Amino acid sequence: MRPAASNPTDTPPADQSVWDDLSLVLDGLDDLARSQASPDQFYRQLIGSVAPLLAANHAAVWLREPDGTMRIVAHTSGWAESIADRQNHEALVTHALDAPGVLSLAPGQSLDVASNASSDHLLLAPVTLSDWTAQADAAVAVIELALPAGRAPSSYAGAVELMQAIRAQAAEYHVRRRLAQLSSESSGRDALLSFAEQIGGTPDLGLTAQRIASEGARIARCDRLSVLRASRRSARLLATSGTDRVERRGRAARALERLATIAMKLDEPIYYADSTGEQSTTDSLPQVDDVVGRYVDEFHARSLMVLPMPADAENQSATRGVLVAEQFSAERGSLDQLLLGELARAAAPAMTSALAWHDLPLGGVLRTLGWLRMPRTLFRLAAACLVMAAVVTALLAIPAPLTVDVRGHLVPSARQEVFAPRSAIVDEVLVAHSDSVDAGATLTRLRDPELGVEIERIRGEQIKVQRQLESVRATRTTADATTRDPLEIYKLSAEEEELKTQRDNLQAELALLETEAESLVVTSPLAGTVTTWQVDERLAEGRPVERGQVLLSVAQTDGDWILELEVPDERLDMLRSAESDQLQVEYRLGSDSSTMHTATVTRIADRVDLVNKPTGEQERTVLVEATPDAPLSAELRAAALRPGGSVRARIVVGEAPLGYVLTSDLWRSIRNWWEF
């Protein structure tokens, strides 16, 4: 019904637009009543639509709690300031719950329990479910509307009729919500039955706890559900939803165990809800509130419930497990305490049974035997035994080549390295890589400035001594012709002999130095090919070299080639105990892994060398030489001479069972450990 107006100043204009607005509001409320909105959301939108339509000063909605008290769930701005006497106003609202229809109270109008103390005309519309239920407490809410005083009676009468329609839509909302709750409870019972079936049937305590945590979190619609085992003194975390493994040393796990221990000792649930500011335990102990407060502050839980699980229905005081449910998101709301209680009771038998199996003496053996008794398990075990027997038989009966894997190089048998005869400086390089040279051909010239200076010094000394010798001879000849003093002649003869000796020594020293100077011209020791790479860079002009440093390598690449293999010292016994004297070698070049070549071992060295590994460690190796069975191609020879042209080889020392071949390194380690 459209509200009537006596004049345009105190009521909304009665034109077609008002009817259109009224129709839109009623249609919107009808859609809202069919939605899944919470009571707070429903009533906020209701008064937000109705109050402007009726030009109300204030509006509010009171919701009846299960304990009979009234709680304000929605109101317009300024409503609290308009209430002068809150107690009188709440008594008036409570009285309106039992009213058969909408109460219309003028300013100052009194009822039996209270009066309208405000300056507005109050409309109190009780929302009752009496048309759908026979319960005594059918009234669930009161819609309060404060209209300006002084309007025409017909205006208030129209507003009352509108409020009748609105309270009917609100009642329909509550009926639909109650039906949805009943349906949810029914589906919740079915879910609990399915939950009890899923978590049972296994004596494994860890698996049972994991099933309770994962399935329970889904049914309770909580962000995290943890399962803890209760002992005499403390609780131990077993499983947490969302993870397959719990880390008990973490801060969160230790805090959960502290909370569960408190609830276990109190034998009462602990509940906290941030949305209502409620934090309570049965005894309301300050110590408990302090622990819960620290936990939610540290881990940001908006809702928390710690619920002991009784061992059985007869002995409710015996706690065997503890559930800890947490809600971190504000969208899901608070935890459902009733549902969690049912969940704990449904999980208690499975938890008790798993704990009883776990605490039995030799419980692990009994659980294994129980698992083996299952027909499917017996079949799988028999199949696994057959497979293992077949594998063991194959490992013991099938022969396989016993080999030693080594590394080495493929090199010409006639080769020689050219060393620096002394410390010097490179003066000239006359060859390059792959150049053919004859025996005695000059490869490079070295220069030693100090040696040149020394030769010049000796030559200068020779000239000086020669002149002194000639002077002494001339003096002695003159003395013989004039004085003929025997003493003077004897002295001159002695001096002459001394100078001759000094001259001869200088000549011998000069010959040695010239020989060393001639050795600075480095020649090839044999006819062949220069195999050294990047000769110009290694022996750049002016680069110093040290005595004994390798300058170049010359080899007869067209002749015979051999394999030089580095065998670890601990593998040498396998070669010496081989069944055949002619050990075969299978090898491939590192740069050409597609082609396998063969060779025959010709010599095993009698000494052990220390070889530097790329890691910087030293390894004891024995040099083994082998001759290729077939002539080498030019491409293979060229590849072997390139830098990094190493060889991967396998020396076949005989045959052994496949199992020993695969585990030879392990058996060798065990033998060495046993012997030493």
Automatic annotation (TrEMBL):
Residues that span the membrane, as ranges: 377-398
GO annotation (BP), single: plasma membrane copper ion transport
GO cellular component terms given for this protein: cell envelope
Record bears the keyword Iron: no
Gene3D superfamilies: 2.40.30.170, 3.30.450.40
Keyword Protein biosynthesis: no
Signal peptide positions (record): none
Keywords: Coiled coil, Membrane, Transmembrane, Transmembrane helix, Transport
InterPro entries in alphabetical order: GAF-like_dom_sf, MFP_Cation_Efflux
Coiled coil region boundaries: 489-523
Name the record gives this protein: Efflux RND transporter periplasmic adaptor subunit
